[in-house]
Structure formats: C-alpha cells, structure tokens
Amino acid sequence: MEGKNMSAPTRIRAPELPDNLEWFNTDQPLTLASQRGKVVILDFWSYCCINCMHVLPDLRYLENKYPETLTVLGIHSPKFENERVGEQLQKAINRHHIRHPVANDPAFQLWRAYGIKAWPSIIFIDPEGYVVGVLRGEGRRKQLDELISQHIDIAEEKGTLRYAPVPVRFQPEPDTVLRFPGKVLATRNSLFIADSGRNRVIETYHDGKIRRVFGSGTPGMLDGVETAAMFDNPQGMVIVGDFLYVADTGNHALRRIHLKSGEVMTLAGTGKQGRYTADNFREPLDAALNSPWDLTYHESNLYIAMAGQHQIWRMNLNHLGIERLAGSGREELVDGPLERADFAQPSGLTVHDGRLYSVDAETSSVREIELGQGLVRTLVGKGLFDFGDRSGVGREARLQHPLGITVDADRNALWVADTYNSKIKRIDVQTNEVSTFKFSYQLNEPGGLSIYRNKLFIANTNEHQIVALDLQTRMAEVVNVRE
Q1: Which of 89, 106, 159, 384 has its CB surrounded by the most CB atoms within 10 Å?
Q2: Residue 1 confidence (pLDDT)
C-alpha cells in the first residue's frame, strides 16, 4: 500500500530433525537439509487415531503424483504407551501400507519444536527449507495438491527444484494366510474372518479349513459373487438370517453377503468418506458413511460403530433407512441423552437384553446405551487421556485402546479385547467388575472377539492369527487357517 512502510513477513526456517529418532522404511536417518530443493511434508500422526488414518490415502495420492519432487515424512507422536514401542509401530506401518519414511518421536521433540497442538497435523516446508504453514485435521488433499504444485513451479522458475525420490526400505510381514485380521464371527458351523490386510472375508470351519472366500484380495469396491467382489479393509460382521453383513471400513460402506449364493452387494455408502452431511438417509446408497468399524443386530436394526464420525448409527433392515442413533460427532466422553452424548472412535459393538454396548478406542472406555430409554452411560473409562491396565469396579478400572467386545449370556459377562494391553478383559454385567482373564498364550493387539459355547475366538491381529480360547480350561490354541 502506498504511503506505508510494508516489511516482508519473517520466514521461519524449518527446525532440523533431531539425530536420535528411531526411523522406519529407510536405511538411514533423514535430515531436512538433505531434502532441500523439494517440497517436504511432515505428517504428525499417531497410529491409534482414526483421523490420522484418514490422512494416509491423501498422502499416498500426493506421493504418487509427485514421486520425485515431494518428500513425505511421517512423524509418529504416540498417544498411548503401546504406540511408543518400535515393533508395534512397525506393525502399524505395514498394516496401513505406509510407503514413506517414518520417525518415531516418543519424547515429542518435534511436536514441541513445531508447536503442534493436535493429531493429525501437517507441516508444509518449501524447497528452500522454510515453513509455509500448518494444516490441521483431515480432508486436506486439494489444499495440499495446490500448494505443492505452486511451490514446485516457483522452485522450477528459480532453477532450484531438485528431482530425487527418497529411497525407502521396507520390513515386510511374514507370508501368512491371514494378514492383520480385524474381526472374527463364530457360528455353529463356521468362523467368518475379516482378513482385513488382504481385503477379503473368509469362511472357515472351526478347525480353520477354508470353505469360501469373499473378495479378490485387491482393495476396491465391487459387487459380485465370492472372489469376483472387492472389499477394502473389512472389519466387523454380523449374521441376520441368510445374510452376512460386513462393515467395509476402507470403502466407508456396508456390504451384504448372501450366504447361499455367495453374492456380495453394497447395502449402504457411496464409497467415499462422508463428514456430517446428514443425520438420516432414506436411501442408504446415498449415505456418505465414515469408517464403519463394527456391527451388531437387535430387533430389525443393524447397529453400526461409525468410528470415523465418533457416533453410533443404525439401519432398519425392514425399510432400509439409515440414521444416526447416538453421538454429537465430538470426540469426547460425555454421557446423557443420545443426541448430546459424545463418543470417541467406537470400534466394537455388542447387544444384550435391550442394551447396546460399545468400546470407544480413544477414551479406552466401555459405553452402554439403554435402547428403550435413549440414554448413554459409561461403564469403564474416564477420558481421552486416561488409560492403563488396571482391574477394578467400573470406572476405577483402566483399559488401553480396546477394539473388540462381545457378550456372554451364559456367564453374565462382557468380554473385551483390550487391544493395546494385548489382553482379554472380563466385565461382570451385574457388578461391573473388570478383571484380566489369565491364560498362557501371549496376544499381540487383538482386535475382535466372538463367542460360541465355551470357545472365545480372538482375532490376534498383529500375529495374523485367530486364537481359540477355551473359557473352562483356559487353554488357547491357534486356529490353523488353511486351504
């Protein structure tokens, strides 16, 4: 402006990466100085966090679009104790198909250096090594794409743009039949396994012999018969009549498998992630869902743990309308009437005697909805940053990022997959007493549970296994899943 002394804004040099970080997907520690001449994105994430998971497909898209002029570095800032462990982070990197270098920063050195306030946050660094800004939250693909293109053009005009793909080195998982199975469902004759890492649903006998496979194994969203169909990271399942309903998490959809014909069809969802677009939809195929993670059924209604939107939804299977049941959409732990209650990444559901139970992963809690009264209350858990491994009555107890829950009517109990403690917890439905169920087999981030008679079937996610636990003898054995 004329008549005013305008000074150029101060440019801030991006703080260098400390040399004491543990690195993954690369042979050697990386520095920002070594990436000069390229656009650099620092993705501050935590592998527990659904919003961080939602950022990963956007980063993958950008990495593929700008393979030589963009460097993406994951800065893992762990929330939970379990996430600080390098071996567990390596599993998460493989489970989420992350193809860029990742640094583990359990001391939050970089978090503080860059003034990060929340997960996920992206720091954008220009080719000269200066911070352009921070983008918080998910859904930033378009903004990032435009920024990258703009700064590549500027560097090209200056003659400072450098073409140099970042060399990566992966630590692949062993070649097992299952790959990161998320959930399991036991019936009288079958086990249904969400083989999440292989993007398929498998039906086996109880001894593990495979009966049928649904899904080609390639991620995608395609209806068809058995292996002609495609899923993307399927998770929770429930059987109603002749149909197996599947939470097709990566596709933000609900799928239905006709168990007699083997035909897979899409029941709800557009295939794209939705964000608070509406509270109810008459046409479920128009409903943009948000990472449905688990399912249960009660009195004509399919209940859906909508992890990505921190809500519980329901779909009436008679008239097929789909709607929000509970949760404001805020990520928090608040009890009360359905519409005012808050959830935090609900990831497991079960129903018993008119009560819907959910495990909220991010508040390490177990919640209860009295379906007749429309009230939410907390059985176990305290808040977003209150977690641990402690037995006790009700809210005295502590869990760590639980993902699975099932009801045991014969024993008047709830069984919980206490995922980040790698334990199975038992909750007495009458007294609310929480205890660790001790047995000899060591689990590794179990994600799902299903009970049939005296057997508790456990999706032992990080070991690529289904474990059968006899609740009377406390003996556990790996189900030998095979052709």
Answers
A1: 89
A2: 30
Please tell me the distance from the alpha carbon of residue 301 to that of residue 348, in angstroms, as a whole number.
16
Phi/psi of residue 382, nearest 5 degrees: -130, -40
Q: Which amino acid is at 237?
A: M
Q: How far apart are CA 461 and CA 92, in angstroms?
A: 11
What CA–CA distance (Å, rounded) separates 469 from 459? 11
Q: Are 414 and 358 contacting, i.e. CB atoms less than 8 angstroms apart?
A: no
Segments of the chain scoring below 70 in pLDDT: 1-9, 276-277
Contact 208, 224 (CB under 8 A): no
* pLDDT given for residue 161 in this prediction: 98
Of the candidates 100, 104, 36, the residue with the CA atom closest to the CA atom of residue 72: 100
Domain covering 183-478, topology? Neuraminidase (2.120.10)
Q: Are 241 and 282 in contact (CB under 8 A)?
A: no
Q: Note the pTM of the prediction, 2 decimals.
A: 0.96
Quickly name the fold that domain 22-158 has: Glutaredoxin (3.40.30)
- Determine phi and psi for 419, rounding to 5 degrees: -60, -55
Give pLDDT tens digits for 274-318.
976 678 899 999 999 999 999 999 999 999 999 999 999 999 999
What is the length of the chain?
Answer: 483
